[in-house]
Design goal:
single chain, alpha+beta, Cathepsin B, Chain A, Helix Hairpins, nine-stranded mixed β-sheet, two-stranded antiparallel ribbon, binds 2-acetamido-2-deoxy-beta-D-glucopyranose, Peptidase_C1A_papain-like, protease, cysteine-type peptidase activity, signal, hydrolase
Length: 390
């Protein structure tokens, strides 16, 4: 198989390991095991029964916390846990206000993640899997490599693009899915790109199996040998394409359904629905990204999800958002031209991003991020996938 021939370029700046900015869903996994609680408590350096937290009992903060619990159907096994989570909630309430100040064109507030510390939200069970450390923080853009790739990569025509574009309207995007308490964003980003490519090639929209990737894909990055796909502990879309090229394809959700837990690999080659042939890393230039999106289909991207924990809606255009700390894999499905931004003085273009945190998060499961500023590093890990058509 001409695997390396299939990959059109390899400058993908994949020095980052996507841990998916943990979420706890309201619907999935309410059966917290005691072990989970321990882990989450030790990651927070606050005493679960601190006096500060006890002082919150009976305040308006607790009233807000109670309606949060009701809205998102949360349950805590002990009173200590309740008080601890109340303290976390109070801090997140302040953090949402800070995010609002930093990102005035979006709406930030209480979300289903408001009882998780920033560390829990971001790193999930990191360290539990014996992974020495993450690969975060390295510069994802090697400019020399990027420059070299630009000469070899096919530059897409970035002129004559429509003013706005949305693959959802064309039927190339499946419903918003829910990863649950599992750092499997990279698998959802991967299936999203393949679902789109398959729709464009065949006219058929299929739900593809993230669970196959969670259970069976242990591929490591060619350059960063520690960056291996690791079920609910994180992974990379480029690794997943390589796994799928070798495995022979991907099953549908219906034959290999999502459980949100790493299990034994049950991949059955006879049930392959889509065969992955190749993938391409897209240059970091946002007009190239737009051209590739329009011409090739939805694109898998990595970004820094720090503002997403409190995001409720609007165009997110934070004053400061680290471009190097990519921790979440999502799917770019379109763009628009007139999202209002006070900060950027006027109507500014934005990207439309499909997330995998269910429909109750963000704008019916979607995130809008302002375009043209390499915002939150969204330009630095972008890929398109090529499938086999018969
Ligand atoms: C994908 O799965 C969801 C949830 O089961 C379902 O509602 C939706 O119709 C499916 N989409 C396609 C294209 O099969």
């Amino acid at each position: 198989m001409m695997r390396s021939g299939g990959m059109m370029l390899t400058y993908a700046p994949c020095f980052t390991f996507l841990t998916c900015a943990l979420i706890v869903s309201s619907t999935a996994n309410l059966d917290h095991s005691p072990q989970d609680l321990n882990i989450r408590q030790v990651t927070d350096n606050q005493n679960p029964i601190s006096t500060t937290n006890l002082l919150l009992l009976g305040t308006t903060t607790e009233l807000r916390f109670k309606s949060f619990i009701q809205k998102y159907e949360k349950s805590y096994s002990t009173h200590e846990e309740y008080v601890h989570r109340l303290g976390v909630f109070a801090k997140n309430f302040i953090r949402a206000a800070e995010h609002q100040a930093m990102d005035p064109t979006a709406i930030h507030g209480v979300t289903q993640f408001s009882d998780l510390t920033e560390e829990e939200f971001e790193t999930m069970y990191m360290g539990l899997g014996g992974r020495g450390g993450t690969l975060l923080g390295k510069d994802p853009v090697d400019s020399a490599a990027a420059a070299a790739a630009k000469s070899t990569a096919m530059m897409d025509r970035a002129t004559d693009l429509p003013e706005s574009f949305d693959w959802r309207e064309k039927g190339a995007v499946t419903n918003v899915k829910m990863q649950g308490r599992c750092g499997s964003c990279w698998a959802f980003s991967t299936t999203g790109a393949i679902e789109g490519a398959n729709f464009i090639a065949t006219g058929k929209l299929l739900n593809l199996s993230e669970q196959q990737l969670v259970d069976c894909d242990h591929k490591c990055d060619l350059k960063e040998k520690d960056a291996c796909d690791d079920g609910c502990s994180g992974g990379l879309m480029t690794n997943a394409y390589n796994y799928l090229i070798e495995a022979g394809g991907i099953e549908e959700e219906s034959t290999y359904p999502y459980t949100g837990k790493r299990g034994e690999c049950k991949f059955n080659p006879d049930k392959v629905a889509v065969i992955v042939r190749s993938f391409t890393s897209i240059p970091v230039d946002e007009s190239q990204i737009a051209a590739n999106l329009v011409h090739n289909g939805p694109l898998a991207i990595g970004l820094n999800a720090v503002f997403m924990q409190t995001y409720i809606g609007g165009v997110s255009c934070p004053l400061i958002c680290g471009k190097k700390h990519l921790n979440h894999g999502v799917l770019l499905v379109g763009y628009g031209s007139r999202g209002y931004s006070i900060l950027r003085l006027g109507y500014k273009p934005y990207w439309i991003i499909k997330n995998s945190w269910g429909v109750h998060w963000g704008e019916h499961g979607y995130y809008r991020l302002c375009r043209g500023h390499n915002m939150c590093g969204m330009n630095s890990m972008v890929s398109a996938v090529g499938i086999q058509t018969s």
